[in-house]
Specification:
This is Helix-turn-helix domain-containing protein. The chain has about 70 residues and is mainly α. The chain is built from five helices and no strands. The chain has one domain.
């Protein structure tokens, strides 16, 4: 299931308590999480962006902005 695989990858990278806490992630943590998912190819899967936004507790446009910045570096 796609939703589980995204959560598994996030949990591998982020502290599980950070991912499931009420406290929002820092900008650096969000950017790093999107970078890891990008490197793993998650964003090649249709429907991944809304799921990532949900798990990181950010908006979909934020995910797109982080991806744009990542692609600009490459």
């Amino acid at each position: 299931k796609l939703e589980n695989s995204i959560e598994d990858i996030l949990c591998e990278y982020l502290d599980f308590t950070l991912l499931h806490s009420d406290k929002p992630l820092s900008l650096r943590q969000r950017e790093n999480a999107v970078q890891v998912l990008f490197d793993k190819g998650i964003f090649n899967i249709k429907g991944a962006i809304p799921m990532v936004a949900k798990y990181l507790k950010i908006s979909e446009p934020s995910v797109y902005r982080y991806l744009k910045a990542i692609k600009k570096k490459v």
